[in-house]
Structure formats: C-alpha cells, structure tokens
Amino acid sequence: MSEIRKEIYIHQKTEDKLVLTEENKRETQAIKTVISSLKSSLNIENCALLFTLKLLRISGRDFKERLSIEIFNAEGESRGKIYCSPLSIESDLYQLREHGVLLSRSNIMTLTKLVENVYMDVECCKDDTVGDVDVESEIADILELVCKYIYEKEIKLVERKDGKYYDIPVNEFRGIFRETVYKNSSYSAIKKVLHSNDYIYYASNRADNTVADVGKVISIIGDAPDVEEILMKISSEAVMEGLDELGREIENDS
C-alpha cells in the first residue's frame, strides 16, 4: 500500500485544550521521524503531543471505500487501527476509545469535520481483499456469531418493561467481529443490518443504549425467534460435544 500524503495530529496545549491539525507529507518518512519533528515544534510552544492518527483510504474490489485510521502514541508506537465507513465517520470514530483515545463528543465532532475536509487529499489504495463481505447477505452468520458470544459469556436474559434482552457491552460487541471476515466491515453497517432484521433494540434511533450498572450496551432482542433457535442449537451442540468428550475419557480409562 502507498504512503499517505496527509496525516492528522492531535496535541494538547497547556490549557488542556485539544487542538487538531493536519500536516502535508512531501516525502515518505518513518512515523517516529514525523512525530519527533512535531514534538520539537510543540515544545517551543510549551505543548504536549498526546497521540497521532494516520489516515489511509482503502478501496475494495466493489469500489466501496473504507477509511483506515492507525493510532500512534507520543513515542511513535502503534496502538492499533480502526476502520470507518464514509457514511458513518462520526459514529465509527468512537472506536478510538477502545485504544485509549478518550475524546469528548465535541472533539469527536471536530475530528469528524477535519477528516471530512481532508478526505479527498488522502491517497486511496486498492485492496482486493476488502469489499468481499456483504453484511446484508451474511445476516445469518453475523447473528450466529452474536448468539455464540451470548452463550459463551453466559449473558443473562434481562426482562424490562418493553421486552426481553441480552445486553452486550458496546466494546465487547465490537470485539465479536474483530478476528472474523467482518473485521474490515463498517461497525455501523453491522448494527444497521441487525436492526433492520429486528434483532437489535434501538432507543431514540440509536443502537447504543445506556443501562443502569452496565453502561452502554447493544440490546439483542431475546425473544426474536431466530435468536432463541440459534441459542438452543448452540446449547445442544455444546451438550453433545461434552457427552462425546466424556465418552472418550471413559474409554481411555477402561
């Protein structure tokens, strides 16, 4: 993949105000060199660099784009990547919190505007492995991954006035897809397809609900027929697997 032409830097002034800037790259440089240069200039202004976000547009074989954002700490060490859909940049940027970048809502909005302003200046790279997965057509597989997580983590069915739900903390819900074929898919697209098929409860047009003593969660509708059926199937398979394992142990002991 090609080196990008623009990077976004976030640094903190002495009055604790986050300031977002963009830097043009005239030639390929190591990220630590870029950060070292910026830190030197900030020291003159008595500023402290918090972290760096490195942007890269990725176009898949379906010509749909994803925005890759890699996070670096003040020493230039990578702290992971997030992927944003151009359709939902603001909501997808909240994934930064999983990597220790706890931006306020107002700063997320500021960062969104900055990303949108520089988007067309960021070099676009082709990746034919991106775009193969259509989340709408893979709803059954996605739901099964969610149900498997509910079963394995022993998430209890909670009954509220408006229904029965399996509440999955937002950060954990994102993690369900991190090591799957959907790792580059838009998080918002996954939530949207689950909601459009009546598997997720939306409060005030948002999938992220706040539950007392738990925090922000994704509420899976517990009495949705497919959810109940898949959970029963997973439970039965686990029981059969346990019985098979017990049988092998008895056979080995005899």
Please describe what this structure looks like.
The protein has two domains: 6-126, no CATH class; 139-238, Orthogonal Bundle (Arc Repressor Mutant, subunit A), CATH 1.10.10. Helix content is 36%, strand content 26%. The protein contains seven helices and ten strands. It has helices at 31-44, 89-92, 105-118, 139-152, 170-176, 187-196, 225-253; strands at 6-12, 18-24, 48-59, 65-73, 78-84, 124-126, 157-160, 163-169, 208-211, 215-221. Strands 1, 2, 3, 4, 5 and 6 form a six-stranded mixed β-sheet that branches. Strands 7-8-10-9 form a four-stranded antiparallel β-sheet. The model has no long low-confidence stretch (mean pLDDT 78).
The helix count comes to 7
Low-confidence stretches: none
The secondary structure category is alpha+beta
Query: What's the overall geometry?
Result: globular
Summarize the helices and strands and which ones pair or pack.
Layout: E1 6-12, E2 18-24, H1 31-44, E3 48-59, E4 65-73, E5 78-84, H2 89-92, H3 105-118, E6 124-126, H4 139-152, E7 157-160, E8 163-169, H5 170-176, H6 187-196, E9 208-211, E10 215-221, H7 225-253
Parallel strand pairs: 3-6
Antiparallel strand pairs: 1-2, 1-3, 3-4, 4-5, 7-8, 8-10, 9-10
